[in-house]
Design goal:
By secondary structure, the protein is α/β, with parallel strands linked by helices. Helix content is 42%, strand content 18%.
Length: 449
């Protein structure tokens, strides 16, 4: 059965049951799909505009902004003001101040932005000025994520970055001069030809900058990317698996030693500076996703917009036309079908919700709450999960955490779980072998289902 326009515009009945199961979104992700170049590891939906283009002189960017605003205007407000807004990309710092302000004003007018909301933007060195960043801050941006990736020019060039190491330090000075205290740096380990010594230097360079937050990602070679064509995963010139594991352990050692909390598998923060928006994903909560290629999770339905520019534009036009034709309509009357433009549009099953909750929640150092799992999925389901995880608990890769953060070392002879506490991966070994643990867990839960 094909979804109707009502499905695609999220016109669902906000019953108490739906709200209990999925919650009302209070976060929005906005995709800004423009880059000066495409990095060799990138598989995101982006449009390359060239080294000299930005929101002031790119017709492509100027065309995109009002269409994104139109999508925002046609998306139903389900009733909660936004507590987080995240501009991702792409390179959102290619937007002019007026373009970003226009998008934020449209978002605020449609959903409302709560007082004290976290409003984040991804920025790349060499793509913004002090005046521009001050304009972003005046419009409401209070958190930035600076894409650094490495502190060696040869590694930056090897992965297709458009900036130099010198521009990293210039960008940090601009961020500080703009008065933005809450800023994050992104680093990537496991790059081609990257040595353990280079990785250590990048980590220590980042610590000298002393951001409030740092994301440390291990390179994933994706099909369809330049790296996917050049390299075979886990083969030279990529670092060997054991070297990649050493890089992960070294990051944890240096960053936690500098006072950062390792709160998620790839993320570290000073006290009070965890990324509130990303926690929405890891806690499997509802959120709006807006823009080309963006994915949303609203009232139990996941929807991914088209990944190509013209297809996305046509989808938004169809959305607006369908919305105008949809009122008034009698209950049960079908609307024009715009499904062909949608890449992914489906209702998430209860088992999918369970698997996603485990996959995302176990990324967090705190793990997943046993009492919350029991309430949402039943004691029988928690028992199934524990049967799968017991071997890894005995191996030291899974921990049972108490509310005070300590872990339970032994259980009684029956090895039954306590009624409260958290299931979590140990740090660093459980995190390092998370793919093995989750693959086994998913396989066994799928068989039981």
């Amino acid at each position: 059965m094909n979804p109707t326009t009502d499905d695609l515009t999220f016109e669902f009945k906000k019953s108490a049951q739906v709200t209990k199961n999925f919650g009302i979104p209070s976060s929005a992700y906005l995709h800004i799909p423009f880059c000066r170049r495409r990095c060799y590891y990138c598989d995101f939906p982006v449009f390359v505009v060239g080294d000299r283009k930005n929101g002031d002189n790119s017709g492509t960017i100027q065309q995109y902004v009002p269409i994104l605003c139109q999508e925002i205007a046609e998306t139903p407000n389900l009733g909660a003001s936004l507590k987080t807004v995240f501009f991702g990309g792409g390179t959102p710092s290619l937007l002019s101040v007026s373009q970003l302000s226009n998008i934020l004003e449209t978002i605020d007018g449609k959903f409302g932005i709560a007082a004290g909301a976290e409003i984040s933007i991804e920025i790349d060195p060499g793509t913004f000025t002090l005046e521009q960043l001050r304009g972003y801050a005046a419009a409401g941006v209070n958190r930035v994520s600076l894409g650094v990736q490495a502190f060696q020019d040869e590694l930056l060039q090897a992965c297709g970055r458009s900036h130099s190491v010198a521009e990293i330090f210039e960008a940090v000075e601009i961020v500080r001069s703009a008065g933005i205290v809450n800023f994050s740096l992104d680093l990537i380990s496991g790059l081609p030809h990257q040595t353990l010594e280079q990785w250590e230097y990048s980590l220590k360079s980042a610590m000298e900058i002393a951001p409030t937050h740092l994301s440390s990602y291990d390179l994933i070679v994706e099909q369809g990317t330049a790296f996917g064509r050049y390299f075979e995963a886990s083969a030279q010139p990529l670092p060997a698996d054991e070297t990649a594991a050493q890089m992960y352990r070294l990051a944890r050692e240096i960053l936690t030693g500098a006072g950062y909390e390792h709160y998620e598998i790839s993320n570290y923060a000073r006290d009070g500076y965890q990324c509130r928006h990303n926690r929405v994903y890891w806690e499997n909560r509802a959120y709006y996703g807006l823009g080309m290629g963006a994915a949303s999770y609203v009232q139990g339905r996941r929807l991914t917009r088209p990944r190509k520019t013209q297809e996305y534009y046509q989808w938004v036009r169809n959305l607006a036309e369908a919305a105008s034709e949809a009122t008034p309509k009698l209950r049960g009357e079908t609307q024009p079908d715009i499904q062909p433009a949608i890449e992914q549009n489906f209702q998430v099953s209860e088992n999918d919700v369970l698997l996603e909750t485990l996959m995302l929640g176990l990324r967090l150092a705190a793990g997943v709450s046993l009492s919350a799992l029991t309430e949402k999925f039943s004691q029988k389901t928690v028992d199934r999960i524990w049967r799968c995880l017991q071997p890894y608990w005995r191996q030291g890769w899974i921990e049972i955490g108490r509310s005070d953060g300590s872990s339970i070392a032994t259980l009684d002879e029956s090895e039954q779980l306590p009624l409260s506490g958290n299931l979590r991966l140990s740090d660093p070994e459980g995190f390092l072998f998370s793919n093995t643990i989750l693959a086994d867990l998913f396989s066994k839960l799928g068989e039981d289902n």
